[in-house]
Amino acid sequence: MPFSADRAEVLSLKALSWLAANDELLPVFLNASGASLADLRARVEDAAFLGAVLDFLLMDDAWVMAFCDSEGVAYTTLVEARAALPGGDQMHWT
């Protein structure tokens, strides 16, 4: 079943919460994104920002696995959710 935008946003919010609770990874995200802690709070309803959270997690298989294991979802779930959010269209080169 394809992800709806609402379902993708819920998963992204869970990912943001997981990321915010990760003392080692949160500073990496903040530095990479240029976001502040205030931005995290202010942009929780911004679907494009939530997509950026998923983009960040998708950069490392270990992060994907850790989050998905904590949520009890398949590892492919983040990619599916990302595709349902703004900017999630994948380029097809063939």
Task: Name some characteristics of this structure.
mainly alpha, 6 helices, 64% helix
Structure description:
With 94 residues, the protein is mainly α. It has one domain (5-83). The protein is 64% helix and 0% strand. It contains six helices and no strands. The model has no long low-confidence stretch (mean pLDDT 91).
Main sheet, how many strands, which sense, barrel? none
Summarize model confidence as the mean pLDDT: 91
Name the poorly predicted regions: none
State the total count of DSSP E strands: 0
Tally of individual domains: 1
End-to-end distance: 25 Å
Query: How many individual helices?
Result: 6
What is Rg? 13 Å
Structural class: mainly alpha
InterPro entries: DUF3572
Organism: Tritonibacter horizontis
Pfam family, one: DUF3572
Protein name: DUF3572 domain-containing protein
